[in-house]
Amino acid sequence: MKKTKLFLLLLIIVLFSGCSLGVQPWERDVLARDAMMFDNEALDIAFDGHIYFSKEATSGGSGIGGGGCGCN
Fold first, then answer.
1. What is the rounded CA–CA span in Å between residue 64 and residue 15?
2. Are 67 and 61 in contact (CB under 8 A)?
3. CA 57 to chain centre
């Protein structure tokens, strides 16, 4: 029983020791690359906007201001 508790404790310590506490300043250049952005491809953004317009018959609403239905 004592070995099981010790094993579980060590397992928890090992699992949580891999957690990061934040991004270090020297790691930010890697995370700031264009490939890491959500909207890095302008063509993909335009294509997605066309799909939403075609399927929902709405225009706009992709920004913060509104939902495209006029009910800001």
1. 38
2. yes
3. 28
CA angle 40–38–48, rounded 5-degree value: 80
Sign for the CA dihedral angle at 15, 17, 22, 25 comes to negative
d(CA 31, CA 29): 6
CA distance 15 to 9: 10
- Taking the C-alpha atoms of residue 33 and residue 31, their distance in angstroms, rounded to an integer, is 6
Predicted TM-score of the model (pTM)? 0.32
The single-letter code of the amino acid at 7 is F
> pLDDT for 58-67, tens place per residue?
665 555 554 5
